[in-house]
Specification:
It is built from 18 helices and 21 strands. It has 535 residues and is an alpha+beta fold. Strands 9, 10, 11, 12 and 13 form a 5-stranded mixed beta sheet that branches. Strand 10, helix 12 and strand 11 form a beta-alpha-beta unit. Helix 3 packs antiparallel against helix 4 and helix 15 runs antiparallel to helix 16.
Length: 535
């Protein structure tokens, strides 16, 4: 349950009885449940929870949506319109809110987009079901009506899917980027960079690429710039400023070994005393000898670029510099793993026979931008790509990052399944329109539930119209008139109901996932008849 918190036994004593009581009270206050909730009180709890979630997310839906400032429990501030970030950072532990958070998390993991659509649809399905429950309709009847609605809506969605050509694919990716509120020119740059990366990966992996593994996203304040590279970009400085900075087809070596000679290596028995200059001289000479052996081993391997997880001794750095070898030190292991995947060089130690652990790149060079060094590792045949995002302000950087993330996920889905549907609330309105016709063919109370499902779907274009500053009633009337004439219509950025250019498309796969996930969460919540907190 959301009202329970687990504290290790050895920490309970440190907190103390009073501290534990305060901690439990704080968690229960966050969950807003202190005793069992059922019947009328349960209905009120459901209505309150989903209404607050809907109000929170609805105003940030679409490219004209508003931003939220979220201050989390550790005083981190987020300025965002991204649904998954808003829900993740909310300090609310109510079980119903937690269920909707899980819905957003599952949508994000499954497709990386559609979180707000799914959560808003689920919230409205529950709200409309509550209105029916207050008139005396049993939840099982509503659930049965919702199941009929889902099957019919899914069937009609299949009929509305179109195959995307290259132009439609580009438009769909651009629409996903614009949904985060970035400017049109930024959306175009994002689209070109994202399609370059995903198309390359799709060819190299035969459609089996994983964005988390095959794409590195590097964001920096500066620019503005969006840069795509077939390979890896790292924000790292060379070990020495006077090393060569550009190599064509270099051999690459990756070490997870500290190349810094410490005193315990030279005198493991600790039986030498630094009591005279001669002893200090001998130790320094021995250190240089060991460093020379390590450097000669690296030089003999033929490597021209060295990536090292640990530190590098200045003597080794000098010898590598003299041999025209570019070295990087104190790198993160996750970055080394990306470089390894890109260049084919396994991560090894200097103790091994390193000639068997070499990789290759097409080109490696460094650039300095806004006072910060970047190393570019270009590998054309690699299944690893990098997107470098640079924006002058931190807020703008966050917006562009969200837009790039959505564009990447949509492009990945569309390259695997090119099915698209009309965006701008068009597909939701069409499904709602057809469901109302379907409801008129039913007998019994299920038809009321089907109409409630249709109303929930129509809430998406209504919210888009409201966020665009349009009169919602007028907008829905125009859309209804258009569909009555057999014409498609949607909410446009120009604050009009239109079916003309520019076209707006969404991924059909993401729409299907949002529809199914939201319906399943709503059904599960409507099956709840009591909330029981753990004592």
């Amino acid at each position: 349950m959301a009202s329970e918190i687990n504290i290790p036994g050895n920490q309970k004593n440190l907190i103390g009885p009073a501290g534990m009581d305060n901690l439990v009270d704080r968690v229960r206050n966050g969950a807003m449940i202190k005793e069992s909730v059922s019947e009328d009180r349960l209905v009120d709890q459901l209505e309150r929870a989903v209404s607050e979630i809907e109000e929170l997310l609805a105003s940030s839906l679409g490219p004209k949506g508003m931003n939220k400032i979220i201050v989390n429990p550790v005083n981190e501030t987020f300025l965002t319109s991204d649904g998954k970030v808003i829900l993740k950072e909310m300090d609310v532990l109510h079980p119903i809110v937690t269920s909707l958070k899980k819905l957003a998390e599952s949508m994000d993991k499954a497709c990386g987009d559609g979180t707000k659509t799914a959560v808003l649809l689920a919230s409205n399905l529950i709200k409309n079901a509550i209105l029916l429950m207050k008139t005396g309709m049993h939840p099982t009847t509503i659930i049965r009506g919702y199941e009929l609605s889902l099957r019919k809506a899914y069937e009609m969605l299949e009929y509305s899917i179109k195959e995307a050509g290259e132009n439609e694919l580009r438009t769909a990716v651009m629409c996903s980027a614009r949904s985060k509120g970035v400017e049109e020119h930024q959306a175009r740059e994002i689209t070109e960079a994202v399609l370059k990366v995903t198309t390359h990966l799709n060819e190299k992996t035969r459609g089996r690429f994983d964005l988390n593994r095959n794409v590195k996203l590097l964001k920096k304040v500066g620019g503005p710039e969006i840069r795509a590279l077939e390979g890896i970009i790292l924000d790292e400085n060379p070990a020495r400023a006077d090393m060569l900075r550009d190599f064509e087809e270099p051999v690459v070596l990756i070490l997870n070994y500290d190349l810094k000679i410490k005193s315990e290596y030279l005198n493991p028995q600790h039986n030498l005393r630094m009591d005279c200059a001669n002893t200090a001289f001998l130790i320094e000479e021995k250190k240089k000898e060991i460093c020379r052996e390590i450097a000669e081993k690296i030089i003999a391997s033929g490597a021209k670029v060295l990536f090292c997880e640990g530190d590098i001794d200045p003597h080794i750095e000098t010898l590598l510099r003299d041999s025209n070898i570019l070295a990087f030190k104190k790198l993160k292991l996750k970055d080394l793993e990306k470089v390894s995947d890109a260049t084919g060089a396994p991560i090894t130690t200097c103790k091994d026979e390193i000639t068997h652990y070499l990789g290759k790149a097409d080109r490696i060079w460094t650039e300095k931008q806004n006072g910060e060094n970047f190393v570019f590792i270009a590998v054309k045949n690699s299944a690893i790509s990098t997107l470098l995002i640079r924006e002058p302000s931190k807020y703008g950087l966050g917006k562009v990052e969200e837009a790039v993330d959505d564009a990447l996920n949509n492009a990945a889905f569309l390259l695997k399944n090119r099915g698209i549907v009309n965006g701008g609330g068009a597909i939701e309105f069409e499904l709602a329109y057809m469901l109302r016709l379907f409801a008129s063919t039913l007998e019994g109370k299920e038809q009321l539930a089907v109409r409630a499902y249709a109303d929930s779907l129509q809430k998406i274009p209504e919210t888009l119209a409201k966020n665009a500053g349009m009169n919602v009633i007028d907008a829905m009337t125009r859309m209804r008139s258009a569909y009555g004439r057999g014409e498609e219509a949607r909410i446009d950025l120009s604050r009009k109901v239109t079916a003309g250019e520019p076209a707006v498309y969404d991924s059909a796969t993401i729409k299907k996932l949002a529809l199914v996930s939201a319906s399943e969460v709503a059904r599960n919540i409507l099956r709840i008849d009591e909330i029981v907190p753990k004592r």
